[in-house]
């Protein structure tokens, strides 16, 4: 069975992470939606709270990413400074031996 672009599929894998089965996920997703809507689990308030959680996670990840970038820049700067010091020390040592 062929699938078009943008089709949501479910993939069943074996213990070796090899594909056993691929099937369209439409019926599965619709079943979930029907079950949760019927039981009142998915409400506009629930969706709003989940959106807020996702936004909070996005902000936290962005902040962590910015912090990691800052730390990486600091490490690169320190590395450059160490390399410059090594060159200076080597130069001073050569000057002192001459």
Describe this structure in words.
A hairpin with a 5-residue loop joins strand 1 (9-13) and strand 2. With 98 residues, the protein is mainly α. It contains 2 helices and 2 strands; from the N terminus they run ββαα. The longest helix is centred in the C-terminal third of the chain and has 54 residues, at 44-97. The model has no long low-confidence stretch (mean pLDDT 89).
User: Mind describing the biggest β-sheet?
Assistant: 2 strands, antiparallel
- With strands numbered from the N-terminus, the spatial order across the biggest sheet is 1-2
Q: Which percent band covers the strand fraction?
A: 5-15%
Low-confidence stretches: none
The total strand number stands at 2
The N- and C-terminal alpha carbons lie at a distance of 80 Å
Q: Mean pLDDT score, rounded?
A: 89
Tell me the number of structural domains. 2
- What's the multimeric state? single chain
Q: What is the N-to-C succession of helices and strands?
A: EEHH
Decide which structural class fits the backbone.
mainly alpha
């Amino acid at each position: 069975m062929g699938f078009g672009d943008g089709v949501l599929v479910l993939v069943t894998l074996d213990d070796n992470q090899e594909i056993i089965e691929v099937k369209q996920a439409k019926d599965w997703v619709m079943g979930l939606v029907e079950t949760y809507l019927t039981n009142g689990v998915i409400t506009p308030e629930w969706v709003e709270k989940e959106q807020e959680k996702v936004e909070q996670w996005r902000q936290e990840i962005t902040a962590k990413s910015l912090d990691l970038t800052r730390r990486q820049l600091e490490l690169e700067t320190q590395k450059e400074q160490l390399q410059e010091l090594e060159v200076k020390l080597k130069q001073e040592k050569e000057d002192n031996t001459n």
